[in-house]
Specification:
By secondary structure, the chain is of the alpha/beta class. It has 2 domains: about 5-125 and about 320-330, NAD(P)-binding Rossmann-like Domain (Rossmann fold), CATH 3.40.50.720; about 130-315, 2-Layer Sandwich (Dihydrodipicolinate Reductase, domain 2), CATH 3.30.360.10. About 30% of the residues lie in helices and about 25% in strands. The protein has 8 helices and 14 strands. The protein has helices spanning about 15-25, 75-85, 130-140, 160-175, 210-220, 255-265, 280-285, 315-330; strands spanning about 5-10, 30-35, 45, 50-55, 65-70, 90-95, 120-125, 145-155, 195, 225-235, 240-250, 270, 290-300, 305-310. The strands form 2 sheets. The protein has a 7-stranded mixed beta sheet with strand order 3-4-2-1-5-6-7, sandwiched between helices. Helix 3 (about 130-140) packs parallel to helix 5 (about 210-220). The longest helix is centred in the middle third of the chain and has 15 residues, at about 160-175. It is globular and about 55 Å long. The chain starts with a strand and ends with a helix.
Length: about 325
């Protein structure tokens, strides 16, 4: 079967990555409609050797569309996803608009593929940090229940979009040339600096990114009892997020069984060379589909604890690739 496909937010960083992933994976596209805001209308984007014009997103943009990928922010998703569903499309939404809706499946295909069949027109793509976290932990979870997660993220500019990536380049250039630079996209100087994730902090002291990781993990795993303690930080890396993770397990398997679980798990690549001190790095995760996992060791401070380090491309497995993998599994 071949599908009539639409991409909402086609000119953004994730939208352009969706085009690349659809082409690379030879997804069965019969026709492709590229949708964005008025300021992007008229641009042309390449797909399978053709230059396809970008159209202005309208309520009636989804006539005849089978699958609509949304990556244009929560406000546009809330406004236009109902239009797409009413027109008969299955929506795979990359925003936070529907993630915690109890009637909307929140899916990582390697973790909870069974949830896809429960959709009522909308399937939510999890937050990028949650996807990388749960991909890194799923091989462990298949060995034993995970009681608690302590995770610190090192999040790249790509998580804040194409403009933040450009700001990192511009700020770095200015810094090296000794020129002043005023941040416009992010709230703090970005070159040679890091800062707490640039999302609103709630009364409980957790920011929105951290709260997403807590709530989405519980929903995807269908485990309200799992404790998640995240700290999210923005670092001066263009793309590919990194995460330092400690998991407290119900029982602690032998290390060799843990290594074997990671070697066998699809979507994860084990990078764990103690002799060469070679472990996951964002520069090596960039452009790759797999989440890189390494530095696996028994944790010295947590009973039944295992510590590890993971890197994943935020624009691919953290967004576009995961969305296309969901589409590939649609019944």
């Amino acid at each position: 079967m071949r599908y009539h496909v639409a991409i909402v937010g086609a000119t953004g960083a994730v939208g352009q990555e969706l085009l690349r992933v659809l082409e690379e994976r030879d997804f069965p596209v019969r026709s492709l409609r590229l949708l964005a805001s008025e300021r992007s209308a008229g641009k042309r984007l390449a797909f399978r050797g053709e230059m396809i014009p970008v159209e202005t997103l309208q309520p009636d943009s989804f006539a005849g569309v089978d699958i609509a990928f949304f990556s244009a922010g929560g406000a546009r998703s809330k406004a236009f996803v109902p239009c797409a569903v009413q027109a008969g499309a299955v929506v795979i939404d990359n925003s936070s608009a529907f993630r915690m809706d109890p009637e909307t499946p929140l899916v990582i295909p390697e973790v909870n593929p069974e949830a896809i069949a429960q959709h009522r027109g909308v399937i939510a793509n999890p937050n990028c940090s949650t996807i990388i976290l749960l991909m890194a932990l799923e091989p462990l979870r298949r060995l034993t229940r995970i009681r608690r997660i302590i995770v610190s993220t090192y999040q790249a500019a790509s998580g804040a979009g194409a403009q933040a990536m450009q700001e990192l380049l511009d700020a770095t250039r200015a810094y090296l040339q000794g020129e002043p630079f005023e941040p416009r996209v992010l709230p703090h100087p970005y070159a040679f600096n890091l800062f707490s994730h640039d999302s609103a902090v709630g009364e409980d002291g957790y920011n929105e990114e951290e709260r997403k990781m807590i709530l989405e993990t519980r929903k995807i795993w269908n485990d309200e009892a799992v404790a998640v303690s995240p700290t999210c930080v923005r670092v001066p890396v263009l793309r590919a997020h990194s995460e330092s993770i400690v998991a407290e397990l119900e029982t602690r398997p032998p290390l060799e069984a843990i290594y074997e679980a990671y070697r066998a798990f699809e979507g994860v690549s084990l990078v764990d060379d103690r002799t060469r001190n070679h472990f996951p790095m964002p520069i090596e995760a960039t452009g790759r589909d797999a989440v890189l996992v390494g530095r696996i060791r028994y944790d010295a401070g947590v009973p039944n604890g295992v510590a590890l380090f993971a890197c994943g491309d935020q624009l691919r497995k953290g967004a576009a690739l995961n969305a296309v993998q969901i589409a590939e599994r649609l019944p």
